[in-house]
Specification:
alpha/beta; 111 residues; 4 helices; 3-stranded parallel beta sheet
């Protein structure tokens, strides 16, 4: 499993390096998943959206302003992102391979 960010699909202000590098990881997921799926190995990427972490504070992002732009009207919680990762690592997700899944409260407008 590869962790990327919503910036891989929709560039975010002031995150030039992240905006540039993370889309390449999605290409890696697509290519690698096709190579190893026959061996029972799943490869997926999960993209976090705006999540209540110290990183958001370090970037000086206004939680209330960002939350108003998210359809869920709040920031994500780290445990919600962890739940997605845990599911994809479980036997219940053994047939999910080569996917990029956002945990973003509906923020992304692109697929």
């Amino acid at each position: 499993m590869i962790v990327t960010s919503i910036s891989a699909r929709e560039p975010l202000p002031s995150l030039m390096i992240s905006n540039a590098l993370r889309p390449g990881l999605h290409g890696l997921v697509s290519s690698l998943s096709r190579e190893v799926a026959g061996d029972g190995v799943t490869v997926n990427a999960i993209m976090h959206g705006y999540t209540a972490t110290e990183r958001l504070q370090d970037l000086g992002i206004d939680d209330a302003k960002v939350a108003s732009q998210i359809p869920a009207r709040r920031l994500g919680r780290p445990e919600e992102f962890a739940a997605l990762a845990t599911f994809l690592a479980s036997e219940s997700a053994a047939y999910i391979c080569g996917q990029v899944i956002a945990c973003d409260g509906g923020f992304l407008r692109s697929n």
